[in-house]
UniProtKB/TrEMBL annotation:
The gene is hemH. Its EC number is 4.99.1.9. Fe(2+) binds at H179, E267. Pfam families: Ferrochelatase. GO terms for cellular component: cytoplasm. It catalyses: Fe-coproporphyrin III + 2 H(+) = coproporphyrin III + Fe(2+). It is found in: Cytoplasm. This is Coproporphyrin III ferrochelatase. Keywords: Cytoplasm, Heme biosynthesis, Iron, Lyase, Metal-binding, Porphyrin biosynthesis.
Length: 347
């Protein structure tokens, strides 16, 4: 049995000033985040006219994938659905169901494991199928791809280009960043039998692979975009704090590669292109931010190759010893207890 469509499943983002607060309320629903914190984050979006680039970047990547599919003679329409903003995944799945789709591949816009990077997309799939009800198509989620050679080479070329933009000056430090998560979430990432920390270990492995591809002997892995209360431990160090430490040790400049993200959405352009770049400038450090993989032509090739693993039985390509993971059906987790969400305290 073949597939009727590809569902491109992403986070979503506001596309105008009036969208910002409703979007943030969707993102934080059920989490008890204080309104003053939402207003603070809203200012980041308003800095860019209330528009996150994430939807545009997703549509551009989808168009590139559709072109690659057509060039390969593959008839697989690509449909867009989001967790937090229109087009909502529930609405997209309802439309696919009305069109008669029976079996659909799902591409989540994350390369890694962990709750927010993988398991939450399973929850999106389960929720969307429940909303549609009887007749909802079978949804097969595509695997994690952090160690795929096309992803690694695209990120590595971005790092090389960033170093070249600084004249390949000696002493420039390469710093890889990814979205921070609570320590408890990282400990719970992956199946319990694996010992946890699949997310941070995958980030570290991706950084190692990219550094090797780019010919970089020394580099750092740090975190960004923390959003939790100060009393809850999150993965550290934060990129801005790390810049302070590098400056104190005499490092003249940095190339920052947001390896944990597939596109230049708002957390990348705010946390790195604004806050981190400004801190580097305060220290008189040179700063260049490497491109993410999503704008590279190899990203569309990667997605099509991941699709062909399902449609044509293509053998999965990977550069690490991590198991192939993340491919699930109808929102079931990869394994019992895999990436369990944090239990919220009873009120």
């Amino acid at each position: 049995m073949g597939y009727d469509a590809l569902l491109w499943l992403s986070f979503g983002g506001p596309e105008g000033p009036d969208d910002v607060m409703p979007f943030l309320e969707n993102v934080t629903r059920g989490r008890g985040v204080p309104r003053e914190r939402l207003l603070e984050v809203a200012e980041h979006y308003q800095h860019f006219g209330g528009v996150s680039p994430i939807n545009r970047l997703n549509r551009e990547a989808m168009a590139a994938v559709e072109k690659q599919l057509a060039g390969a003679g593959m008839e697989l329409p690509v449909h867009f659905g989001n967790r937090n903003w229109s087009p909502m995944v529930e609405d997209t799945l309802a439309a696919l169901t009305a069109e008669g789709a029976k079996r659909v591949l799902v591409f989540p816009t994350s390369a890694y494991g962990g709750y927010s990077a993988c398991r939450q997309y399973d929850e999106d799939i389960e929720r969307a199928r429940a909303a549609v009800g009887d007749g909802a198509p079978e949804l097969v989620k595509i695997r994690q791809f952090f160690d795929h050679p096309l992803f690694v080479s695209a990120v590595a070329d971005g790092v090389r280009a960033a170093h070249a933009s600084l004249g390949n000056e000696p002493g420039i430090r390469t710093v890889f960043t990814a979205h921070s998560v609570p320590e408890s979430a990282d400990r719970a990432s992956g199946p319990p039998s694996e010992g946890g920390r699949r997310y941070s270990r995958q980030i570290a492995e991706a950084a190692r692979l990219v550094a090797a591809e780019a010919g970089i002997a020394e580099y750092d892995v740090v975190w960004q975009s923390r959003s939790g209360p100060p009393q809850v431990p999150w993965l550290e160090p934060d990129i801005v704090d790390h810049l302070d430490a590098l400056h104190a040790s005499g490092v003249p400049g940095v190339v920052v590669s947001p390896i944990g993200f597939v596109s230049d959405h708002l957390e990348v352009i705010w946390d790195l292109d604004n806050e981190a770049a400004e801190r580097a400038a305060e220290h008189g450090m040179k700063f260049a931010r490497a491109a993410t993989a999503g704008s590279d032509p190899r990203f569309a090739e990667l997605v099509v190759e991941l699709i062909r693993e399902h449609t044509h039985g293509v053998e999965p390509r990977k550069l690490s010893s991590f198991p192939v993971a993340g491919c699930t059906v109808n929102g079931a987790p990869c394994a019992i207890g895999c990436c369990e969400p944090a239990k919220r305290p009873a009120r």
